[in-house]
Amino acid sequence: MQLIPFRPIWPDLEDMFPGDLSTFTPAVNVYEEKDHVVVETPLAGIDPEKVEVEIEDNVLKISGHTEAKSEVEDKDKHYYRREIRSGSFFRTVALPKAVDGGKAEATFKNGILTIRVPKLEEAKPRSIKIKTSA
After folding, report:
1. In angstroms, rounded to a whole number, what is the distance separating the alpha carbons of residues 38 and 21?
2. Is the distance from CB of 36 to CB of 97 less than 8 angstroms?
3. CATH of domain 21-69+86-114
4. For range 53-61, the mean pLDDT
């Protein structure tokens, strides 16, 4: 029995889309806690000092860049696969509730950027007592 070598269905992205792959869009998780809207994005290997976070009109903007190795360092290398991302990144996220962007907090731990934005009072659920007439 002769074995047929495995070949992937899709060729490498660089073959499909030649050109500049130095920009990327990081994935996000967006969820709600009692008093906050939380956004998490994995930015492993990226210096937090090179990341900018802005909130305007309930839209969160995350941008920055990684330090790509110079072409001089890479000229003697023949890559079989190059998947570690470098270059610029940008992501916008419409926040699902009215938030107080001025009180947002951002933390970076274990390669995950977490942004916690307090909800405005009008966005928090309220319990309304029903009055009855006797």
Report:
1. 29
2. no
3. 2.60.40.790
4. 93
